Amino acid sequence: MKQNFVVIGLGRFGSSVARTLLEKGHEVLAIEKDEALVSSYSQGFTHLVQADTTDMNVLKSVGVRNCDVAVVAIGSDIQASIMTTLNLKELGIDYIVAKAINSMHGKVLEKIGADRVVYPEMEMGERIANSLVSKSLLDYIELTPEVSIREILVERGFGEKSLSELGLRGRFHVTIVLIKRNDEISITPGGDACIKAGDVLFVIGRNGDLDRFEQQVSG
Description:
Blueprint: E1 4-8, H1 12-23, E2 27-32, H2 35-40, E3 47-50, H3 56-61, E4 69-72, H4 78-91, E5 95-99, H5 103-111, E6 116-118, H6 120-133, E7 137-142, E8 147-153, H7 163-166, H8 168-172, E9 174-181, E10 184-187, E11 200-206, H9 207-217
Parallel strand pairs: 1-2, 1-4, 2-3, 4-5, 5-6
Antiparallel strand pairs: 7-8, 8-11, 9-10, 9-11
C-alpha cells in the first residue's frame, strides 16, 4: 500500500532511507537543514525542503501533517533530534522512527513517543564484527535481540541426506527458509531437499542455535 513518508535529515542514513522508499513507489517529503546538502540532493528528490524542523510552525507549513510515517534521521545534533520528534508527536504523526547515536539518546526518544528507535552505526558495527569472526556468515537480519535470520555459506555439506533425515529442527532448533544453489532458489524447501557444499542458506532461529548450526556447516 502506498504511503506518505517524511524523512528528516539527509546524511548517509536518511538519504538511503529516502531513496529506498522512493524506489518502492512511496511519496517522500525530504527535509534537511543544511543548505549545502539540500543543493547536492536537488536532483534526487521530488519533494525536498530546506527547513529547521525544531520549529513547529515550519513543520506545519511544509505539510508534514499529511504524512503517515516520519523518519527522524538527524545526525549528531541530539537536541534537534529530540525537539523534532516531540513536534512530530504533537502533530499526530501515526508512526515515528528515530535514529539514535547512543543508548541514552535512544531512551529519551522512546520516552517522548518514538515508535521505533534505530541505531544504524551500532547495527552496522555488529554486522561487520560478525562477518569478521565467521567466514561462513554472509549477512544477517536481527528480528529480536535473541532471534535472527542468517545468510550462511555451506562449506561442509551433509552428503546425500535429506532435511527430513538430518532432523535439523530437532538437532539445532533452526529452520531453513531458503536454499540457493548456483542460479536455483528453493523457498521453504521440503523434507526431501539436500544441503550441499557451496549452497547458500537463509536460516532462522535463536542466535545460540544458529551459532551451533553455523559451526556444523563451516569448513
